[in-house]
UniProtKB/TrEMBL annotation:
Residues 1-253 form the EAL domain. It comes from the Bacteria. The chain holds residues 512 to 764 of 769 of the full protein. This is EAL domain-containing protein (Putative c-di-GMP-specific phosphodiesterase class I)/CHASE2 domain-containing sensor protein. It comes from Sphingobium boeckii.
């Protein structure tokens, strides 16, 4: 409860900030984007896990405020990097609760316009369960996002119910293989097979694939042989402040 009492002030005062974890393109080996991850550096409690404060925000009607805070920073940063003359995609996590509000489409549209970011450079990461609410409103909202040119990624793929029906219904452009499968690849043949067949399935449906949780060179090599499009994980880079990410990315023009 004390956490919640401070949530508004923490957002407004900058205690809650956004870390960026780089993604690497397998073909060019260049950083091609990042995932925005909310961080709360609390003056007394130290680092609070986003799992805890995202849940608190969801339960107390602050999730829209938190989401807008992250979207605004992430889109501003992505626009800045794209102005350097290279293609850079920014991914933002959306929880089920915000997918229930149709206003999100116009909110995101206006943040994109404010910072001058092309919609195709924004990816919304949603889990299957968040996308497949019983009302069907989430799917409609995601379809409206797609119509604007925004990319949709299915986060934590493989951990939910993962039916082929969901895979067909969710208007995703990308599938993000959960790190539990990726990190087990070097020791478990069955995880390796699942990752391989998920990549093939995604490609046959015209979706690109990101593997998250890549920590080892062996895993990176195996994913490359499997034709995985992009990778994310501690081997490439940890979530970091924007200044650090910025220093890793060259200026092209
Ligand atoms: O950064 P870390 O690995 O600790 O993230 C833990 C969880 O918090 C992940 O599931 C991540 O998706 C989630 N998370 C981080 N930032 C945000 C955010 O801005 N919005 C939502 N909904 N979830 C987030
Ligand atoms: O649920 P979601 O996929 O958004 O969660 C992302 C979380 O995974 C973040 O909290 C991030 O810090 C964490 N993460 C990112 N890369 C790695 C990795 O290589 N290993 C581990 N253990 N965690 C990672
Ligand atoms: Na994510
Ligand atoms: Mn994930």
């Amino acid at each position: 409860l004390s956490l919640l009492g401070r949530l508004d002030a923490a957002i407004d005062g900058g205690e809650i900030w956004v870390a960026y974890q780089p993604k690497m393109d397998m073909k060019t080996k260049a950083i091609c984007g990042a995932e925005a991850l909310a961080r709360w550096s609390h003056p007394e409690k130290g680092e609070i896990s986003p799992q805890d404060f995202v849940l608190a925000a969801e339960q107390h009607n602050r999730i829209e405020k938190l989401t807008n805070h992250v979207l605004n920073d992430a889109i501003r940063v992505a626009a800045e990097i794209n102005r350097r003359g290279l293609d850079f995609d920014m991914a933002v996590n959306l929880s089920a609760r915000v997918l229930d509000n149709p206003d999100l489409v116009s909110t995101i549209q206006s943040i994109l316009a404010r910072h001058g970011l092309e919609p195709r450079h924004l990816t919304l990461e949603v889990t299957e369960s968040a996308a497949m609410t019983s009302s069907g409103r989430s799917i409609e909202l995601l379809e409206n996002m797609r119509a604007l040119g925004i990319q949709i990624s299915i986060d934590d793929y493989g951990t939910g119910f993962s039916t082929l029906e969901y895979l067909k219904k969710i208007p995703a452009t990308e599938i993000k293989i959960d790190r539990s499968f990726v990190s087990a690849m070097d020791k478990s043949q069955s995880d390796k097979l699942m990752v391989n067949s998920t990549i093939a399935l995604a490609h046959s449906l015209g979706r690109t694939v990101v593997a998250e949780g890549v920590e080892k060179e062996d895993t990176l090599r195996a994913l490359e042989e499997m034709g995985c499009d992009r990778v994310q994980g501690y081997l490439i880079g940890r979530p970091m402040p924007y200044e650090k990410l910025s220093a890793l990315i060259p200026t092209v023009k």
